[in-house]
Write a structure and sequence with these properties.
Layout: E1 2-8, E2 13-20, E3 25-29, H1 35-42, E4 46-51, H2 57-60, H3 63-70, E5 74-77, H4 92-96, E6 107-109, E7 114-117, E8 120-123
Parallel strand pairs: 3-4, 4-5, 5-6
Antiparallel strand pairs: 1-2, 2-3, 7-8
Amino acid sequence: MLLKVLPVGLLSVNCSLIVDEETGQAVVVDPGADAQKIIRELEPYEPVAIIATHGHIDHVGQVKTLKEKFKAPFYMHSADLFLINDPIWPGFERQIGANLPCPEPDVYLKDGMSISLGKTSLRAIHT
């Protein structure tokens, strides 16, 4: 298992790539900005899921770009749905490089839910 942490965007939000090195499958967590940087890091891998830890724009700002490129499902808890297209203040989405509108999640995360990554299973913990 490989974990890469990429600070992205104006706010340097940590976007994490979790990779099963044996299968080449990857999960992207919190792709808030800098889609091209994330895509470059994903080049040798097959993204199988995009996860947002919560719905703030600096954590979901590039979900749309990555879904379009990789066709991976988007996971997020339903309690944050109201946040995913809220720029917080006018023009903020441009300042941080968000590609809106963010699509609705394909899968709503629930506490204890598992996501397969190669031979490993990632488990969601709702906090």
